[in-house]
Amino acid sequence: MKKHNKNPSQNLASLPIAFGLGAFALLLGAAFLTASAWSMVLGLGAVALAAAGTSLAQKPKTGALMAQILSLNAQLELAKKSGEADAELQRMASTWVPTLNSQLGTANSQMEMGIVNLAEAFSEIHSKLNDTVAVATDAASVLGNTSSGGNGLADHVADSLNEILSSIRNSFDEKATIMQEVKGFISSTEELAKMAASVETLAARTNLLALNAAIEAARAGEEGRGFSIVADEVRKLSMLSAETGVKIRQRVQLIATAAKRAGDGAARMEATDEKVLSQASETLHGVVSQFELVTGPLHQASEKIIANTNQVSSSLNNAVVHFQFQDRVSQILGHVQESLNQMKGQLGTGVESLNVTALMHELERKYTMAEERTNHGSPGAKVMAESKSSSASDELTFF
Amino acid sequence: MSKTVLIVDDSTSLRQVVAMTLKSQGFEVVEGCDGKDALTKLDGRKINLIVSDLNMPNMDGLTFVREVKKLAAYKFVPIIMLTTESDEKLKSEGQSAGLKAWMVKPFKPEQMIAAVNKLVA
To answer: In this complex, which of B12, B86, B100 lies closest to A394 when CB atoms are compared?
Structure first.
């Protein structure tokens, strides 16, 4: 089309010049023939007027030509620009998209690394908390409730100490019983001493009787000889009895002395025992009270630790829900990266291969979350998102 | 004796939080980063329950479940699908494949513990 316009415009543009040259040649010939310059001057004026008239007649056609030339120029510029745009699209596919993808990949991996480290630290905290709760629970159960007289540790200690006191008291009571026995023994030995003295007395009297009998037997002469022998024997027996009585008395005396000494010692111990028992009881009760002063606050502290730890555990459980954001973000970023790669693939075969509908369709196909579908603006997505409730029955389904 | 759970997910941090939740209840855990990797862990060791993601590279969750059901030693091990998906069609497909439960992410620890305790009891 452009070529068609060129020849007519060229022809039209050369016509005035041709006519002008022809007219000048004619005037020159006329001046030569008439041998007068005036005819030449007049003729030149006529040519000038004719040229002016011609150019005026040509002006509208030149304007149209200019307009056409300008239009052609603009199209040329556009063609030049679209060629540049094509090149720019190619550069976008080969340089910008891969760079974006790298940045997305770096962001994703840095986020994952950060969350993994955080989750590890949290896991350790969680584990230590569980250990603390276990230890505090054991301690609390051992310490027990000391204030209301339940089965607390202090009560157990008090019971044990009271048992010891009771044993001591029992042993003192046993000693007292023994003391009584000793006292009884002492009074028995006193009686034995008396009995031994009686034996001696009897023996002395028997001896006297035997002497009297011997005297009477001697007086009786021959007939009293047998009686004299009996009297002698009786006298021997009485002397033996007297000796035995003395020995018994002496032995009983020794036993009585020993028993008295034991009795005096036991009496002294009894007085001391009472004092010791009293002091021990006082001391033990003091110890139990001090023990309660320690175990009471310890028990309360253990229970507070358990309560605080349970609160922290509850907060950690909430944190576990929030930690899972990284997985969701990672999926979304992955889908974006895949779509960018697909676009790159399309542009790689030329701008004309770019198919946004296909890209959007493929992107939607990969979605795994309701939020992605909502962002995509797919028809059912918003309805689904609005109607979806966050009840436990939606989050967990058993088959 | 403590029970063992196999956790399958391509997200390391997700495996970590599931492991942390289960270990706090005394469970032992074994991890796989996708279906293919998880199958290599089913090498005769005792597994009481499996928690698997759905969308994973190399082998997705549903394919993994179907492969597990072919293994005689692990055929009756209960499997929970843990995923961001909540589509009813997918849930139905999961049920057909042999899943025991479908849990939507993000999961709550008390929910996970209740579900696991119910299925391994």
So the answer is: B86
